[in-house]
Design goal:
Elements (H helix, E strand, L loop, with lengths): L14 H15 L3 E6 L4 E5 L6 E5 L9 E5 L4 H6 L5 H17 L4 E5 L8 E3 L6 H10 L21
Antiparallel strand pairs: 1-2, 2-3, 3-4, 5-6
The structure holds zinc ion (2 copies).
Organism: Hymenobacter ruricola
Protein name: DUF2199 domain-containing protein
């Protein structure tokens, strides 16, 4: 029997989609091979023995703390242990918290480069830095919710998406 990996597109960031995935996860995990467990974060990195795709588990207190599996880009085990991938449910919660900020603010480029050394992005108006650095600074000052832990991967890049 062929594997089901290609039938699982990136997790949609809705409670319904994540709850559905939680239900599907025990069956999804069965054929996968466990590569390593991140004991402190209670996360697993797995690989499909048929197509080679990588999967990770996540869990969210908000959704009962039950684990769910999702596909992630291939990665070295040591690298993953250093920083596991972002968990989509945590990103969903974060995006919801950030939504009012994005709704209130438009970011126009000021025509100047970002003040942060080596940053390739243009600065935005009324700020000396680019949009990602502007948001980062507000987060450092506790003026915006903090980005959840974890390595970013597509399609989870910006909370405004
Ligand atoms: Zn597969
Ligand atoms: Zn920047």
């Amino acid at each position: 029997m062929p594997c089901v990996c290609s039938q699982y597109p990136p997790l949609e960031l809705t409670r319904a989609a994540i709850n559905k995935r939680i239900k599907a996860t025990p069956a999804l995990l069965k054929p996968l091979g466990l590569l390593v467990t991140h004991a402190a974060a209670k996360l697993k990195l797995l690989q499909c023995p048929q197509c080679g795709h990588y999967w990770q588990t996540g869990w969210e207190w908000n959704l009962g703390g039950t684990e769910y599996a999702y596909q992630v880009p291939a990665i070295e085990v040591a690298e993953w242990l250093r920083e596991p991938y972002l968990q989509p449910a945590a990103w969903m919660v974060y995006a919801a918290l950030m939504q009012p900020y994005y709704a209130k603010n438009t970011f126009e480029p000021s025509g100047k480069p970002c003040r942060v050394a080596q940053c390739p992005h243009p600065a935005i108006k009324f700020s000396g830095v680019c949009e990602p650095h502007h948001i980062e600074q507000l987060q450092e000052f506790g003026l915006l919710p903090k980005r959840p832990a974890g390595r970013l991967f597509p399609p989870y890049h910006t909370a405004s998406a």
